[in-house]
Amino acid sequence: MTKKKISIKDIAKELGISITTISFIINGKAKEKRISETMIKTVEDYVAKVGYRPNYLAQSLRSGKSKVIVFMVEDISNSFFSNIARLIEERAYKSGYKIIYCSTENDADKAIELIQTFKNRNVDGFIITPTLGLEGEIKTLLSENFAVILFDRWIPSVECSHVIVENEKSCYEGTEYLIQNGCKRIVFVTLESEQTQMQDRLSGYKSAMKKHGLESLVFEEPFHTSSPDFMGDQIIDFLKSHEKVDAVFFATNYLAFEGLHAFRKMEVLIPEDLQVLSFDDHFFFGLHQPSISAIAQPIEQIAESLMNGILHQLNGVESTEVMKIELSNKLVKRGSTFRTV
Amino acid sequence: MTKKKISIKDIAKELGISITTISFIINGKAKEKRISETMIKTVEDYVAKVGYRPNYLAQSLRSGKSKVIVFMVEDISNSFFSNIARLIEERAYKSGYKIIYCSTENDADKAIELIQTFKNRNVDGFIITPTLGLEGEIKTLLSENFAVILFDRWIPSVECSHVIVENEKSCYEGTEYLIQNGCKRIVFVTLESEQTQMQDRLSGYKSAMKKHGLESLVFEEPFHTSSPDFMGDQIIDFLKSHEKVDAVFFATNYLAFEGLHAFRKMEVLIPEDLQVLSFDDHFFFGLHQPSISAIAQPIEQIAESLMNGILHQLNGVESTEVMKIELSNKLVKRGSTFRTV
DNA sequence: TTGAAAGCGGTACCAC
DNA sequence: GTGGTACCGCTTTCAA
């Protein structure tokens, strides 16, 4: 709009008043400070006319607040995270907060580095999917009174607010659903990961299998797969080397994509030869031929809980209570699973 | 780590030296300023010991630079954008820059608001997929010497660096490919949008059709579709109300997803009854049954060109030259298109 | 009701 | 080789 940056000083000089007065008016403290109506109007008009905007840096340097929340996830290009990101951004916006995204790539060093960086930028709060080894950093954050809320997974040893889903319960139910469909030999495909959400999913599967007196068949993909095909090949080997498998239950949707790719190569007939179920629904599952059954996480609710939680911490005065939220998932039944008995 | 924030002053006091010296050492100007080795070592050790990190806000308030680049796209949850985001983040990181993402949702007001906000945070550069109506804002940015680079689309009336792809050429070739496959009645499904990339794609299609003496059949989806099904139904109507259509060419992948969904409902046989081609490849196209042919944009090259361009502007002294880059796409032939003649 | 001035935590110019 | 100190632009006492 205008040419050069205009500061509060310029306005003061131009209007012949002090910067203090302007600051009060801009920050809505005019009434409180009993500034005259005339003065208020003069300043407001001028501010609007020149399109003045206070410099955020200076503001937050002085106030220690920045109205910025960091949204730190494992991988922002993962649709689960980017969808939540969008919802959060929207709500944050309404409350006058900005969101800064970043991806940790599950690398604790990178995560720590990012947290340090953002602390130095005076961000007010953090929404984090913690990587392993972030425990100390989170504790520090908490002790420094930053607003922090974890999601997707959490850290048992740290008393920190979090929003997660019923991983264990849903996987238990999902497994039981496959069993009810007549499957006996069910393979659970997961990542070799100690993250709580992965462990809980695995454990839900195992409990269900055990309860029904079935043998657990777990395929763990090493965390860093160089190529997507790699896992595809491995799972083919796994299936071939095991007695006929009735169903495969994937612990995340991207594992399912790799698996489906592999099944394509093997020319397996779904669901006739193999039933397929995946954790974490994805719109492609509805488009896939056949459509793939999945356990859908309540994206909107997660986003809402996160924002409520963090805003609560941000506004709340010394509300030390830790907020632990666990949301329910929904089993979406589609073509890849069906009752044979 | 430590308890309270430690500032350069604390270090000065503790070590009994001036903050100036410390500042020099921290900023690698020790040699230049001929600070003694002993002093350097003392300071560096102490800094490492207490884990001191300069406050970025203060730094950038003073220097006017922030080492931050804004990556402003239409929708960060769109995989095309989020994939580029990741690549860019990686490269930026190596050059000591941080990336801040945000989505405009194609809303010029929101975009302007965001740009204003970031200007006030002293960001150094902007990577933008411009919405319509952003012309003035971009011009201002340029005149204020911010580093700016547009991508995906551009603004003809503004002399601004940009990285785009050969939309017209690729769509011309894609259309011709369908024609060579024996298709005559080819529908081009696009958005009702004046954005350059959409216009160019449409125009490529039209030229090809015209050259081969075929009639252009264009279906334009109104920009804001309330539900994904909406367009699906509309395209079914469109196809039904037209003489037998041989092929559908989608201008973006999400349009293709909607379309494929509709074709599913119609029980159309692909490619026998209908050949399908889409602009902007997506990993799901390879998984779909049948796999979907697509025009793949060179993601890595785009990301690389963007970073090169912006870093060039950031480092370059008065390099007023505008950088216009147009990259080539690749036609990926899959099961949804095949030669019938 | 308004204004002066002291910071916030650095950087950079200029002395010593 | 080091140190003093005037800013950067704003918020926030405290005085007037």
From TrEMBL, chains A, B:
**Domain called HTH lacI-type: residue spans:** 6-63
Q: Does the keyword Transcription regulation apply?
A: yes
Q: Which domain of life is it from?
A: Bacteria
Q: Domain HTH cro/C1-type, which positions?
A: 3-31
- What InterPro entries does this protein's entry cite? Cro/C1-type_HTH, HTH_LacI, LacI/GalR-like_sensor, Lambda_DNA-bd_dom_sf, Peripla_BP_I
Listed A to Z, the keywords are: DNA-binding, Transcription, Transcription regulation
PANTHER family reported in the protein's UniProt record? HTH-TYPE TRANSCRIPTIONAL REGULATOR GALS, LACI-RELATED TRANSCRIPTIONAL REPRESSOR
Protein name per UniProt: Substrate-binding domain-containing protein
